[in-house]
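Hey all, sorry for the wall of text incoming. These are the three entities for the joint prediction.
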Amino acid sequence: MKYYLKLGFILLIFCAIASGVLAYINTLTAPIIAERKAREAIETRSALIPGAEFHEVQASDGSIFYEARDPETQEIMGYTFNASDLGYSSTVQTMVGVDPDFKVIAIRIVDQAETPGLGANCTSPSFTDQYKGLAIEDLYVNKDGGVIVPIAGATITSRCIANSIRKKAIEVRDEINQGGGE
Amino acid sequence: MKFTKELTKGFVKDNPIFVLVLGLCPTLAVTTSVINGLGMGLAATFVLMCSNTIVSMIKNITPPKIRIPIYIVVIASFVTIVDMVMAAYLPALHKSLGLFIPLIVVNCIILGRAEAFASKNNVLMSIADGIGMGLGFTLSLVVIATVREILGAGTWLGMRVTPLSYDPMLIAILAPGAFITLGFLMALINMIKEKK
Amino acid sequence: MGYLGEIFVMAMTAIFIQNFVLARFLGLCPYLGVSKKLDSAIGMGMAVIFVMTLASAITFLINKYLLIPYNIMYLQTIAFILTIASLVQFVEMVIQKNAPALYKSLGVFLPLITTNCAVLGVAILNTTAFRSDSVTPYNFLDSILNGFFSGVGFTVVLVAMAGLRMRMDKADLPKSMKGMPIALIIAGIMALAFYGFMGFQI
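and here's what came out:
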């Protein structure tokens, strides 16, 4: 019995050292990761609606979207928000910029791990550029009665992107209309 | 002399993938492009080198009964370090390797080398073994990824290498292509060996 | 869709659409190593189902009640692999003591399972998985079921592979193709066949 306690103790010491080292490295890398993510989010937002000033808005369900205003006139230029849904093999996250009438200005796929060669092509401009200028009602893939041509061999990924953007856009629109319409 | 021998044996003689057939999961999963294969190979090399070093250093104070759990703790720590550092500095690669970074822990090559080599040899030799095996693994990944990327996407390291008229065979970078490519490469190596 | 429907979707996804071996590339070492004989393939499959189900349950609890509350997610890999390794040891001891017959058929495969990446894979995937509505994260029961069905998916292809390879032994092949190369090519064709399930929307 004493022997097994000793073994357990040795193993415990190893685990403690390992956890200590990892905790230290985590304190080094975690801020870098967080900072990079924040910076990327800001960069993507400004690429979607160039030249705007962004204000964070918290929706009633706790999610966050951004209001883009003209830095000089304070006129609302549009909104950006994140939409995400389960694609074929991963959660696909998209950042969307819309104008005040909720027509899409541009979209950017920010996070995905779909099949290389098929679903992963959703990041290519030939797919994302199709969304430019579309109204909420048009945000369907063509098989579902919309105008978006899905990526060859990756209907599920394409459909999930279109649907997630449409759902989120409706949510944000309702939220703004409810808020008394600024 | 012996040092260089340990360093180079992983390339051909004891190649971990083509000869020993170890660590197949990451081999097939991440070789969709050369850059992924290279990233995975180097990550595994780093883990292999570090874990070999530590295992060899502690070989005299490790009770034989619990050596495997201790090796696993050592390996898992280095894997987590790689995971965190990659997430911080190489986010795109980190994302595309995804689940297979934490899974380096269960890559049979690493535990295998710790058990078969590092626990019996001195630190210097263990480092050489780790680097050699790791680079052999990396080399194999790059070879498989080269075939798959050229056939399946017409590119190498992202650069276009085939004429525009070539329509890429998508199947090569999908799951079935991984198995078939490795199968043919192994048959090729067997054939060369027989000729000798 | 009720919970039964949810279970059905999970089973279909884990077994056919996102098969662990053929689509996710997990557990390839035993898939190619233990598929030479039908008996051992069945034994290995059963052992994997058993360990995967148990591992899913325990790692879920560890993740939810230890790693997340104390904000030490970076210890996930270490915690999970140690849990799985000790779980396999423990299962081996219990079976050996209480069910010698079962131990005889499963015993040799149990130590191999620690380094089967499918087990660690399912544990990690469970922590980030969502139900088919893509909003609800897996709860305790979902994780267990997913572990079980993933194990079943593994067993299905492992047993099928063993059947094919036993026949392949009799085939007249070029010498350099024998053994591992032809097994890999069969696996590739099998993966191709499983692509037929791809795109099924349930």
